[in-house]
Fold this sequence. Notes:
The structure holds 2 protein chains of 2 kinds. In chain A, 34% of the residues lie in helices and 22% in strands.
Amino acid sequence: MTVAIPLTISEALDALSSNPDARLIQGGTDMMVEINFNHLKPHNIIALRRIKELRTWTKNTDGSITIGAGVPYQEMETGELKQLVPALAEAARTVGSPQIRAAGTLGGNLGTCSPAGDGLPVLFAVDAVVHLQSNEVSRQLSIHDFMLGVKRNARNANEIITAVTIPVLNGWQGYTKVGVRNAMVISVASACLAVDKPTKSVRIALGAVGPTIIRCRDAESWLTQQFDLSTSTKIELDLAKEFGRRVALESKPIDDHRSTAEYRRHAVSVLAQRLITRAYPS
Amino acid sequence: MNDPIGNEMYSLHVNGQDRAVMDAWVGESLLYVLRERLGLPGAKGACEQGECGSCTVLMDGDAVCSCLVMAATAVGSEIVTVEGLVEQNPTMAVTAHAITSQVTDVQQAFITEGGVQCGFCTPGLIVAVHHLLDKNPDPTELEVKESISGNICRCTGYGRIFAAVEAVVQVRKANS
């Protein structure tokens, strides 16, 4: 086994082409658990945490932002990133503990592609775009085409996830989740809701209740017809409840060691109702 | 890029010193290397999955779970363990009663306020509290709670740990 520690993206891609079976590691907070419990014995590792290019974020001319795959969650919790993408800040703050948020990254979340990954519902709600790079080409893929299933994604073996582009919307957005305790918990169910007033659209994405993150397009378009998303300030309780019910219909939860399908379906209806009520409180 | 690290020697920068790691499998966690290869048993291993915080160390100024860091990927990083805190904070060192070695003001406050029972979580908490107070010398109650939310203590009920943090804040304020 070897561990390569490239300092640039191009060094990392070279290391990957000479070792196509190598596992890429960002903060390590997922992979090290597998290694510690002898579930994974990697042959070769390429550690990306010292690549400075991956640890920055930029504002684009169209108003969107591009966050490097190696930016740790703790940087998304506060400051300008929090103002631009408040739902991402809320999601980041629910990832593990401060220790995990100092190490864990969006790139790692995307690479692992667990349906319970806290960053992913936000990326689905805002229609984020994933940047992939190989020695030959760079390509950009909608998050909806990137995540294929439980821990499966569209990254090719010779590619590195370099960044995510996130549109900055104009309207309320938030993230919330249910777990067995308040701090430091893996989601039993999670939801991100984002409103974009100029396009009169509402987006809701669910985590941990299906093989991929689920966008509830039927509930979204139903609400758009019931309610003026750009001028309203308060949503009636009945409408919020019905929205929650419709969101739950689009979830595809299973029974597993963390919860039951029935409870998850109930939980997402409550989460959706809560989020839309927070968006339109009074 | 340096040559990839194989199963030969590599070197970590721990508590201000370069420490050679020899005859180790390169997939080992930083926690394992600190304890078993470098003779630094301060960081404790409990859950090995980032839930308990008893293995907390500082890496490049961030508090991280050393069980979730692959040691070989920490080459070139500054690592500080609970054993290195006195040296890192010389002005805050005091001689503890009942023990002969020096401790930091945070460690002394844990002793004085009774923030230690079985003691297993204590080294991780000490590192987390140092990290908090270095960044935020006058935290709110919520900030203290959030900053140690990744450190689980099953004995104290946390009350005396919060009292210890508050005591350090007051002493540091008075001395500044």
